[in-house]
Amino acid sequence: QVQLVESGGGLVQVGGSLRLSCAGSGRTFSRDVMGWFRQVPGKERECVAVITRSGSSTYYADSVKGRFTISRDNAENTVYLQMNSLKPEDTAVYYCAADTTRYLGTTAYRTSRSAYEYWGQGTQVTVSS
């Protein structure tokens, strides 16, 4: 059974930090583009960060740029999202996802939700003021 399992969410105060982990099992995700998305009730799920399979390219939404860092450990089949200087508007359920498209280059990626085939169950992040 192919799974992505997120962990590391929780309640944190404004300005605090959290590190989310996404552990894959059932297949290797080392050749996949991996992304972190977040969603709040009543809103679309938005892409906050993406990392290419080699880690050579990353993408960040403007709202998190300079505060969040995505990384991956292909040997551990795990992707991370380090979140610093958290704000109340970062409160959401965070999902990791895998895009299994075999892009021609090592720097290609997509940020649209429809591009991602595998999804985790999500982890809640709540930033209190």
Q: In which range does the helix fraction lie? A: under 10%
Strand content: over 45%
How much is the radius of gyration in Å? 14 Å
Structural class: mainly beta
Number of helices: 0
Strand count, sense and barrel status of the largest sheet are: 7 strands, mixed
Shape: globular
Tally of extended strands?
A: 11
* Unreliable runs: none
Distance between the termini: 40 Å
The whole-number mean of residue pLDDT values reads 96
What is the ordering of alpha helices and beta strands? EEEEEEEEEEE
Describe the structure.
It is a single chain. This protein is mostly beta strands. 0% of the residues lie in helices and 47% in strands. The protein is built from no helices and 11 strands. The strands form 2 sheets. Strands 2, 4, 5, 6, 9, 10 and 11 form a 7-stranded mixed sheet that branches. A 4-stranded antiparallel sheet has the order 1-3-8-7, with no helix packed on it. Strand 4 and strand 5 form a beta hairpin. The N and C termini lie far apart (40 Å). The model has no long low-confidence stretch (mean pLDDT 96).
